[in-house]
Amino acid sequence: MDTHTQKFKVRLGLFIAGGLAFFVIAIFLIGKQKNLFNPVFKLTTTFYNISGLQVGNNIRFSGINVGNVDNIDIINDSTVRVDMLIKKSVQHFIKADCEAGIGSAGIIGDRVLIITQGSNDAHLVKDGQQIASKEPVETDAIMASLKVTADNAAIISGQLAEIMIKVNSGNGTLGRLIQDSTIAENINQTIVNLKKSSKGLDENMNAAKKNFLLKGYFKKKEKAAEKVKDDAIEKKAEEQKVIQKEEKAVQKVKDDAEDKKAEEQKVIDEKK
Q1: In whole angstroms, how large is the CA radius of gyration of the chain?
Q2: Which band of pLDDT confidence, cut at 50, 70 and 90, is reported for residue 43?
Q3: Which residue of 62, 75, 119, 243 sits 20 to 30 Å from the alpha carbon of 225, by its own alpha carbon?
């Protein structure tokens, strides 16, 4: 005797139908994620350290997900082989000299395998081919480098603080210069004296040029400077003449070649 009501049977049927629909959708999504329903080809590469890469992680080419990591095997103590399944539709874009590297999907995202673009004249990759790789930069190494930089910055900051304390206390040359007004006044006076000395030197030179005994010396210097200037102008003019002569010679060769070509064409036309 059937003890189940019609309402219970409907609920059971809906539950089973929903479970089957959920199972089909899950299979479809997983198959799409793993490229089970798309034609794929296989590539391999090797790393010394895969830096947390796992089976199933995405493979990117030009920023686009094109496949998944299929398998990871430890070959020996210094080599890890990574097998890749990549969509067949992108095979004609991947060259034999492409390189595989390991990156992150965002700042704290999962690891991804990144294939770089190859050169235009390289051959396309073949199914099952091994490509070169670039070792990833470890986060621990970056943090260690940042720690060294931070330690150095702390040391420099401490030293600068000590220097500023000494300067503000009037210790050292710079501190005395800033704190002691007498030294600053002496420096200002020295600059004023230098300006006066420079002005006096200019006046003495002008007076020497007007002096009868030294006038000939300065005129000789001026003539020598003018001669150097004239020689430079003359040399430039000669160089310009040489350039013009060379240009004329080149033009003559071109004209002779054109005349010869015209004569040869004329002979050919007459023969016709």
Answers
A1: 43
A2: very high
A3: 243
